[in-house]
Amino acid sequence: STAGPALSLLATISRHSSSSFKNIKTIKMIAPAAERNKEPILAIMRQYVPADGAACRMLEIASGTGQHCAHLAAGLADRGLQIQPSEIDNQDQSSSSSFASIEAHCRSLSNVCLPPMRLDISKRPCPEPPFGRPDIIFCANMIHISSTAAVEGLFANAGNLLPAGGRLITYGPYAIDGAIYPQSNADFNRSLRARNPDWGLRDTAYLAGLAEAAGMALSARHEMPANNWMLVFDKS
Prior knowledge:
Elements: H1 5-8, E1 12-15, E2 27-30, H2 32-45, E3 56-61, H3 67-75, E4 81-84, E5 86-87, H4 93-106, E6 117-118, E7 136-140, H5 148-161, E8 167-172, H6 183-195, H7 204-213, E9 216-224, E10 228-235
Parallel strand pairs: 3-4, 3-7, 5-6, 7-8
Antiparallel strand pairs: 1-2, 8-10, 9-10
Helix pairs in contact: 2-3, 5-7
Family: Belongs to the UPF0585 family.
InterPro entries: DUF938, SAM-dependent_MTases_sf
Protein name: DUF938 domain-containing protein
């Protein structure tokens, strides 16, 4: 598996224009893992964003650097996709950098709704995005580095926000039906739990149970590069 945004977010920072860190609004943060996986994620998302050009509204949870949001918005603009990015606001420098990076990556894209929502997904109920109820909720590389409250909140809030026929789509490393494989994922899981006992690879059966309690069902599992998966949960 590749490390999530919280573990690799600051591995590379790209400065655009001649600004310094004092002018944080011009800084695009680059997470190497997001650069590697954004194209495979886009390829799967093409299966779930309608090709008929009808408007499709997506809420992204835990947008991190903004790389996925920007890549999906650019790659699916012809399909009428509109994205609302979001991130938790911890009232610290890390949060400020993340919000600034999302804006820097996305400000030239007319189908991204800015500013990003300040959203703690562990809180219920989750507020609607400015554009109303989303058709898709997307969350990448959050579940394994989040509290149980945040994971449960993601599913409960998705069940509340999504209309019938809507989808929650998640990306990251998971335990699959009780097994963690290959060994690198098992090692990664141990390292996560050593950092924080509330972190770790969640099992797909556990997530399917959360989905069922929220009126959704796990409908598809897509195997991805680097021992990751995309999971698709349909709202009934």
